[in-house]
Specification:
The chain is mainly beta. Helices cover 13% and strands 36% of the residues. The chain is built from 7 helices and 29 strands. Helix 2 (35-43) crosses helix 6 (108-121) and helix 3 (57-71) runs antiparallel to helix 6 (108-121). The chain starts with 23 loop residues before the first helix and ends with a strand.
């Protein structure tokens, strides 16, 4: 849902797995180090240093600092540690990882100095994001709502197919459904919980299934393949995946077989994993052994004729990495964009934004599920342009509270790039229409528009394609009904409407 999260991450914002060792330099200092120096020492060895200004004081005190303490074996009482382990195989995986030590690995003086630094330097509140003037006159798009309703909208996938039909994955009903171009149900079937991505390869559907929508480290996810329109012929190809949220397919070792790159988002543990096809099935290799992988695309990024991997990681050590392939599936990892651990990375895509032949990056930041949501001025849609050597710089930023997905395209055919974006965490009190915003480029600025029925669902996934075959790009938004804090009646509205998705048909042509 980060992905999508899935984008929907309820894991900790600061995953400090590599930050709890006691460096010798600290114990040898003649003077006590300042809280700032200690924080930089312990909290910047595995991700960007988390500046106190990234969160308000209340969030640091009530949520973040206690959970940082868990990583150093610091608990108020033993039950706190026990509650961190699920009562299943996932709990055993986390226990064996050593992520939450049974004994303190940091002395109380050092920990007190670190906590006091954050509490003394953190602001009472973050700067307010700019107010928006969003018109509910989205005249360029015609809204289509399917007749098919669901009891609790729980979309984990919406995707246009090449034949004009539409795919829907639903976590609550554990179903995968195919809709016709008239948005009528053609076929539906039950799978495990949470179909999140699909790819068509040689007339067969390859589905990524989370296994559990709720955060877990249990290996319940799978890759399933089946013939088109034959759900009853589903076959599990790979199982025991830790909450996979995306998969990509390509021959990465040049043996003529299609291999699979899987984002095992997990919870406390996970990985970006590679499954190499062989005579026995698939052999797993871990490309990066950390949770939070959301998307991974396969592209030749350095023009050497070999398929590389570009991946977004959204937990703790947030950023975008390129894994360069030597042609034999041996990869060298390079971080090309690094984000703060409170960025809230939720989605990215590759496109040639400026038509210079190099792939640029469209990126959204907006995940706000780790604690009581805090509006953040850096949430929104970014475009990072590539200088041709995979060095990226920010070219575009438009603010959007809780941004979860974005499509950058010349939607209106006037020669410049517009942006269509969804938000899973808009400003529900003051600007709920942020759930979907069409940023129409006009000169050096954007006109912001949305459709009147924008809050008939809570949009978590989106896809774009020429759905009606008229030469322009259409959109589909998938809804997932989820609690809103404070209580404003939205959840009840989503339940009553039962709308699983809407199609926005572009009438530009």
């Amino acid at each position: 849902m980060r992905i999508f999260l899935l984008g929907l991450s309820t894991c900790l914002l600061l995953l400090l797995t590599g930050c709890k060792n006691d460096p010798p330099s600290v114990t040898r200092q003649s003077k006590p180090a300042s809280g700032e120096k200690l924080a930089q020492l312990y909290c910047a060895s595995c991700h960007q240093f988390p500046e106190p200004s990234l969160l308000n004081k209340d969030t640091w005190e009530q949520f973040m600092l206690p959970r940082m303490g868990y990583m150093f074996g610091i608990y108020d009482h033993p039950a706190e540690r026990a509650a961190l382990f699920e009562n299943n195989e996932g709990g055993n995986i986390v226990l064996e990882s050593g992520l939450f030590p049974a004994e303190a690995t940091l002395d109380s003086t050092t920990w007190h100095a670190i906590t006091q630094y954050y509490l003394s330097e953190a602001p009472d509140s973050l700067p307010l994001p700019p107010e928006k003037n969003i018109s509910k006159t989205l005249s360029q798009f015609e809204v289509h709502i399917p007749k098919q309703k669901v009891r609790i909208p729980s979309s984990t996938l919406v995707q246009f197919s090449n034949d004009g039909s539409l795919y829907l994955g639903d976590a609550m009903t554990q179903s995968f459904t195919v809709f016709s171009d008239a948005l009528e149900v053609v076929q539906t079937g039950n799978l495990a919980e949470g179909v999140v991505s699909i790819e068509i390869i040689e007339n067969r559907q390859w589905l990524t299934v989370m296994g559990s929508f709720s955060p877990t480290d249990a290996p319940l996810g799978s890759i399933v393949q089946m013939p088109i329109n034959q759900a009853d012929a589903a076959e599990t190809v790979i199982d025991r995946l830790q909450r996979p949220v995306h998969a990509s397919y390509a021959d990465l070792n040049n043996d003529g077989e299609s291999d699979i790159v899987v984002c095992e988002f997990g919870k406390w543990t996970g990985a970006l994993s590679l499954f190499l096809k062989n005579a026995q099935g698939y052999r797993k290799e871990v490309l990066h052994p950390l949770p939070g992988a959301i998307k991974a695309y396969i592209q030749d990024m350095n023009n050497d004729g070999h398929q590389d991997i570009v991946a977004l990681f959204a937990q703790g050590d947030e950023g975008i990495d390129i894994f360069y392939n030597d042609g034999k599936a041996n990869f060298t990892r390079e971080r090309v964009l690094s984000f703060s651990p409170s960025m809230g990375s939720s989605f990215f895509n590759l496109m040639d934004y400026n038509n210079d032949g190099a792939l640029d990056i469209v990126f959204t930041a907006g995940d706000n599920a780790d604690y009581k949501p805090v509006l953040k001025p850096w949430h929104g849609v970014y475009v990072f342009t590539n200088n041709g050597d995979n060095e990226f710089k920010q070219e575009v930023f438009v603010h959007l509270n809780g941004a979860y997905n974005a499509v950058v395209n010349d939607f209106d055919g006037d020669g410049d790039m517009d942006i269509a974006a969804i938000s899973f965490f808009p400003d529900w009190v003051n600007s709920p229409e942020e759930s979907f915003v069409y940023f129409q480029k006009e000169g050096d600025s954007y006109q912001l528009q949305t459709f009147p029925e924008v809050n008939v669902g809570r949009w978590i996934v989106m896809d774009a394609a020429d759905y009606d075959g008229d030469g322009d790009l259409d959109l589909v938004l998938g809804s997932l009904a989820f609690e809103v804090i404070p209580k404003l009646g939205f959840v009840e509205k989503w339940m009553a409407s039962g709308v699983p998705f809407v199609v926005l048909e572009n009438s530009q042509r």
